[in-house]
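Please fill in the sequence for the structure shown.

STRUCTURE ENCODING:
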């Protein structure tokens, strides 16, 4: 297991950091890193989720919890004002494509209204909010004929989840250009790691199936191409963005974060089968996916040049740690 990055380790000591979406996979691991660095963390939590790594690790007992929703402006404003947050990581969102397809309104409310509520609260307290990192996505780009995505490509989502990310990304840009808020935007590929309980996602769903000696289910034909990036690489990316927000090359900018190794769904499942010694279990291919882009992957050269960031985990290393996390989880909980 790799040690976490010690770069600028003391930067976060006694910083007052507001994290939305703190029980999600990214939020849980980011909170862990912030606590290691001595930060004072304020966590926005909509629903209590005892499965979350935030709870499993005991980190929930080390943070200040704000129970509320992104759709509630007064909740966000109170959190930032009363706790005098100097740093904000906006990770909270409705993150599942299928949920967005079934009920676009709830996704638009959380992802679009939630973003402008948060940024408006930051604008009203910009005297002490010094850095804001917005979690966007490669989905914000929508469908482009030329790949990989680079940061100056237009954001042209078409389907509900993509549109919600395009909108949130553009709203974040307008709060920088209009109000000079200290914002930077992270556009990431598919993030994986321990603590993701959205079983419809290919990596946690496949691992759980193999642990149960069951056939994993692939909703698509397995040929969809994506970036898959390990959670520990992403938390380092977010921390570096925030640490460098006084740099004019970073403030107001969007950065892609990807592993430079796009893979198909079938390739991901093959890696997991190999690492779990499950070659005798064949996946079930449903070929039922509609309204999703066939190929999406990122060029991360800008992050490498300006932030000195690159992914440190190979797919084998990241999946190995992830599989180990789920083995421990299911073993200890007897699920």
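FILLED IN BY: designer on duty
SEQUENCE:
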């Amino acid at each position: 297991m790799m040690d976490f990055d010690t770069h600028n380790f003391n930067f976060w000591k006694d910083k007052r950091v507001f994290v939305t979406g703190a029980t999600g996979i990214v939020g849980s691991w980011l909170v862990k890193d912030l606590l290691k660095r001595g930060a004072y963390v304020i966590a926005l939590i909509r629903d209590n989720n005892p499965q979350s790594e935030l709870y499993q690790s005991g980190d929930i007992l080390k943070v200040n919890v704000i129970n509320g929703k992104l759709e509630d402006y007064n909740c966000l404003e109170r959190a930032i004002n009363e706790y005098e947050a100097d740093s904000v990581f906006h990770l909270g969102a409705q993150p599942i494509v299928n949920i967005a397809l079934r009920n676009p309104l709830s996704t638009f409310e959380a992802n679009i209204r939630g973003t402008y509520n948060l940024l408006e609260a930051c604008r009203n307290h910009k005297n002490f909010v010094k850095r804001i990192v917005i979690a966007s996505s490669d989905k914000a780009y929508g469908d482009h004929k030329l790949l990989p995505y680079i940061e100056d490509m237009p954001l042209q989502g078409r389907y509900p989840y993509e549109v919600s990310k395009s909108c949130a990304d553009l709203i974040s840009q307008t709060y920088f250009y209009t109000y000079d808020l200290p914002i930077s935007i992270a556009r990431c590929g598919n993030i994986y790691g321990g603590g993701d309980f959205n079983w419809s996602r290919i990596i946690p769903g496949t691992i759980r199936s193999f642990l149960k000696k069951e056939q994993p289910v692939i909703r698509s034909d397995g040929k969809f191409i994506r970036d898959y990036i390990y959670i520990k690489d992403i938390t380092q990316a977010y921390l570096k963005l925030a640490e460098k927000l006084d740099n004019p090359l970073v403030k107001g900018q969007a950065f892609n974060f990807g592993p430079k190794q796009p893979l198909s769904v079938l390739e991901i499942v093959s890696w997991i089968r190999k690492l779990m010694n499950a070659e005798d279990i064949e996946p079930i291919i449903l070929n039922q996916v509609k309204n999703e882009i066939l190929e999406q992957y990122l060029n991360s050269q800008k992050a490498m040049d300006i932030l000195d960031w690159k992914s440190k985990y190979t797919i084998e290393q990241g999946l190995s740690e992830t599989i180990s996390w789920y083995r421990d989880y299911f073993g200890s909980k007897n699920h």
